[in-house]
Design brief:
6% of the residues lie in helices and 55% in strands. The chain is mostly beta strands. The N terminus and C terminus are likely disordered.
Length: 434
């Protein structure tokens, strides 16, 4: 862990006390002991505040600012071809940016400060730290902004506080890439492109209100939870292990999850095409059978055009639950039952080479449901409206419940009616389609 900077460590124990700290893990990325206030670096500070002066003095050469302490706020910064090394940005300061162009930050520490706004182009953060209520966020139109081997951690959660993720924020309202980073108690941003790879996340939120964005998570590990809200053009997650991954009020043209494992929950999300492939879902440890939120794969009140689940497994008591049902709204923090039956509408739901145990598709209005080469045991398909149900090369065991379900066509691989499945006489249900 890198929860302390060397500067804070030294100020707390003094130089003579370091020997007494044997066994204490120091920050991975620390700044040099000798540093000056940026204002004392008169030439560098003057060029930092005046881009034309920098161009006159250095031309195309890079301005390097090293071992600088930023103790005071600065506004209207236009900075280009500049490298910050081992710089320390003190709590409470605000650096209001107009432009960052070809700028890098190496082994810098952002401690409860705010650096933001403006357009950032070709900006690279390497081995940097952010702590507590820090905000390092570029403005709209930012491009090619990368965070590599960085450690960002917001404030620790406070008992009873459900918004710890807003105590730290990093990224841009344009393009952001996080490579091999540690992200904890933070909100990460990448409105037009968000790419997270080889990283470790813990209690992280992503909120995006621009449908132009593409989000991709690759080869990463998520502890506790990852929550995503908002609009995206596409969303892809490959080879990610997560304890709990949730999307809510989420919109995207495409949603792809491949080679992932953990507990997944979605609510009130609108997606055209969903592909879940080669994934394993498990029930959250300690969750009861009634807690479908943590059942493994739970999608409630979705608006999905087509969903395909291929070669998906449910282990450690995990199960699948997709559909509508009783609709609850919240007024003044208390649940209030709305229309009792809300249907979720699909064009096609497909399962291929998937094992479904103790699972359910309830309050579904689907033109077609297809089960191909699946193993199915104790499957609840009650209260559904199904245009066509096709079962190909699949095994059925236990209770397959079609109570109060209407099916226009029930066919096997030879287009014959499947024997042994009895449906109750349909009963009236609500007409609302969500």
């Amino acid at each position: 862990m890198r929860s302390l900077s060397r500067r804070k460590l030294l100020s707390g124990v003094g130089l003579t006390g370091i020997a007494a700290l044997a066994g204490v893990t120091l920050p991975k990325y620390t700044k040099k002991i000798m540093a000056k206030n940026i204002e004392e670096m008169q030439d560098e500070f003057a060029m930092l505040c005046n881009i034309e002066l920098r161009r006159t003095k250095l031309g195309s050469d890079q301005l390097v600012i090293k071992n600088a302490d930023f103790r005071n706020s600065i506004s209207g910064i236009s900075c280009e071809n500049t490298k910050f090394v081992d710089c320390y940005f003190y709590p409470g300061i605000i650096l209001q940016v107009t432009l960052l162009n070809n700028v890098s930050f190496e082994s810098c520490q952002f401690m409860e400060c705010s650096i933001g706004n403006g357009i950032w182009n070709n900006v690279h953060f390497l081995k940097c730290d952010g702590r507590k209520m820090f905000r390092v966020i570029g403005g709209k139109g930012s491009k090619n902004v990368t965070f590599q081997e960085c450690d960002f951690m917001g404030s620790s959660p406070v008992a009873g506080d459900t918004h710890e993720n807003y105590f730290g924020g990093v990224g841009t309202h344009g393009e952001s890439t996080f490579d091999n980073c540690d992200l904890k108690y933070v909100e990460i941003l990448g409105a037009s492109k968000l790419h997270v790879k080889r990283s470790r996340l813990n209690k992280v939120e992503v909120i995006n209100y621009q449908a132009v964005g593409n989000a991709n998570f690759l080869d990463s590990n998520i502890q506790d939870y990852l929550k995503i809200t908002g609009e995206f053009k596409s969303f892809t997650m490959n080879s990610v292990n997560f304890e709990f991954f949730s999307i809510e009020k989420f919109q995207s043209e495409n949603f792809v999850m491949e080679g992932c494992s953990g507990v997944f929950y979605a609510r009130q999300s609108k997606i055209n095409e969903v592909l879940i492939k080669n994934c394993t879902f498990t029930k959250k440890s300690g969750a009861s059978a009634e807690e479908k939120l943590y059942s493994g794969f739970h999608v409630r009140f979705p608006k999905i055009k087509n969903i395909l689940m291929e070669n998906v497994k449910f282990e450690a008591g995990g199960s699948l639950h997709i559909g509508g049902g009783e609709n609850y709204t919240y007024k003044q923090g208390f649940p209030e039952r709305g229309e009792k039956f809300v249907y979720s509408k699909f064009e096609k739901i497909s399962f291929l080479k998937t094992i479904l145990i103790n699972s359910s598709l309830r309050y579904i209005d689907a033109q077609e449901i297809r089960l191909d080469s699946c193993e199915i045991k104790d499957f609840d398909l009650s209260d559904d409206r199904i245009g066509g149900l096709q079962i190909l090369g699949s095994s059925l065991a236990g209770k397959i419940d079609f109570a109060r379900t209407t099916i226009n066509e029930l066919l096997d691989e030879k287009n014959n009616k499947v024997p042994g499945l009895q449906m109750n006489t349909p009963q009236p249900v609500a007409d609302r389609i969500s």
